[in-house]
Design goal:
Elements: E1 11-12, H1 17-20, H2 31-42, H3 44-47, H4 52-86, H5 93-136, H6 141-157, H7 159-184, H8 212-224, H9 243-273, H10 275-278, H11 284-293, H12 298-331, H13 349-363, H14 368-396, H15 410-430, H16 432-451, E2 457-458, H17 462-476
Parallel strand pairs: 1-2
Length: 477
């Protein structure tokens, strides 16, 4: 049994081979690969999904929502930089919360991250279908199935190979955004930003805020889409070289690049083609280029083809993220243990396959905007808990070795905590259906832990061994 504050948690001894069968390949990612991973997690958000916020709030509301969410993510990744340099394990946010708040806090955080990372690829698969339809005229289940089969298969090949392929795909996506930026700059006209008619029934409505003040709140989930999943970089900690140094550097470089891209896309898509025309486009970058250069123009076709790699990059990388989160939770016994088994190539086979099947089934709904909102629900819950973990660890373990220290300390993580709770509430404004489905998933996961897995925690898992050691030290002192 554990210390008194965790009396309801039961740890079990396992054989010596248990952890040997659950290994990841060490030292395959330096800071450049980690930064590329952070960008690839998110870059699909520049190509599709964010523009639905224009319909909810107009350009002005979407601009304010994006600035608020950029602030939240910047504060969050500064906090994660500190925790990932101090606690470099494959569990990422779950590991930080486990150390700060015990098994219940760890599982609450891990379950929320799983909700985000299982559903986000389903949304991205739907958006990939939209781009493929523009190119080839085909869409639907065959496209979604091909996405999962091909990219889960590459991850099964090996972590190092997958990360290098991921970096190459991400560079192509970056190229597409640069082509878009230089192609649209000459056609930017400020009046295009404000061509959505003001809603006379909305409080505070104007040309700048056509849906009034409430529209800003409703646009927060779509502002998040520019940055959603960048917090997944610490999930690569056990496969990183010198994680204490490279983790903070990689995650900070990635958020800096993403902020520049978000600003460019948010200004140039509606500024070139009009906010009204782009608010419901399934491929807004392509649509904007088609509006100014023509449907069959070289620039639009190039961005459509190369831009597809942006969606693929995020889809591909989030598969990596969900597999490492499932691996860590399973290795520690919070999820069924077979999910953390790794093969000869040291990749978590079932942690890649099982969530992939679930994601494919979700993609069959075709409801990309609903999937976005559900992913945001899980994300904001995890952000609040990770921010709280940073605050607790600062107070609980002031002497913990911190190779990187968060500028502003607990004030920085307090800002991300407050903003994440505001963003969580916004999911109910956008879609109560999405929030309720997400809540149901979360409830099922917590019930599994409460009634089953908390009695079967693995004592030798890294997070549990630390707790046993710290508990023993406390009793001695």
């Amino acid at each position: 049994m554990s210390s008194s504050n965790n009396q309801t948690i039961e740890r079990q001894a396992v054989s010596d081979d248990y952890l040997n069968q659950r290994q990841l390949k060490k030292g395959v990612a330096g800071w450049v690969l980690l930064a590329s991973l952070g960008v690839s997690y998110v870059i699909s958000g520049d190509f599709a999904g964010w523009n639905f916020g224009l319909e909810r709030a107009g350009f002005g509301g979407m601009l304010i929502a994006t600035i608020i969410m950029a602030t939240m993510y910047l504060c969050l990744v500064l906090s994660l930089g500190e925790m990932s340099s101090s606690i470099p394990t494959a569990g990422g946010g779950y590991s930080f919360a486990r150390r700060a708040m015990g098994p219940w806090g760890g599982f609450l955080t891990g379950a929320a991250i799983l909700l985000e990372y299982t559903i986000a690829p389903a949304a991205i698969a739907i958006f990939i279908g939209g781009y493929v339809h523009e190119l080839l005229g085909i869409n639907g289940p065959l496209v979604y199935a091909a996405c999962y089969l091909i990219f889960v298969g590459i991850h099964l090949w090996g972590a190092g190979e997958a990360l290098r392929i991921m970096m190459g795909i991400t560079l192509l996506a970056v190229l597409a955004i640069l082509v878009f930026i230089f192609g649209m700059l000459p056609h930017f006209e400020i009046h295009n930003l404000f061509d959505i008619a003001a809603n006379p029934h909305a409080t505070g409505s104007s040309a700048f805020l056509p849906e009034g003040y409430l529209g800003i709140w409703a646009a927060l989930p779509f502002g998040m889409w520019f940055f959603l999943a960048v917090e997944g970089v610490p999930l690569a900690a056990e496969e990183a070289s010198e994680p204490a140094k490279n983790m903070p550097k990689g995650i900070m470089v990635s958020i800096s690049i993403l902020i520049v891209f978000a600003a460019s896309v948010l200004l140039l898509v509606p500024g070139g083609a009009g906010a009204e025309a782009m608010k419901s486009s399934s491929a807004p970058l392509v649509g904007a280029l088609q509006a100014v250069y023509g449907k069959d123009s070289f620039a639009a076709t190039l961005v459509n083809i190369v831009g597809l790699f942006g969606l693929i990059a995020s889809f591909f990388s989030i598969i990596y993220a969900y597999s490492r989160q499932v691996f860590a939770l399973s290795r520690a016994g919070y999820l069924p243990r077979f999910l953390s088994l790794s093969g000869e190539r040291k990749v978590p086979v079932w942690a890649l396959i099982v969530p992939g099947i679930i994601g494919f089934l979700l993609s069959l709904t075709g409801e990309g905007d609903l999937m976005i909102t559900m992913a945001v629900f899980g994300a904001t819950v995890s952000y609040a808990l990770m921010s709280l973990s940073h605050i607790i660890l600062r107070r609980k373990e002031p002497n913990l070795e911190r190779p990187f220290k968060t500028p502003g300390g607990s004030i920085t993580s307090s800002i991300s905590l407050v903003l994440s709770l505001i963003a969580l509430a916004s999911t109910f404004v956008v879609s109560s259906e999405a929030a309720l489905w997400s809540g149901l998933f979360y409830l099922v996961m917590l019930s599994y832990f409460a009634f089953y897995s908390r009695h079967r925690i693995v004592a030798t898992a890294p997070e549990e061994e630390f707790d046993l050691i710290s508990s023993a030290e406390s009793e001695l002192n």
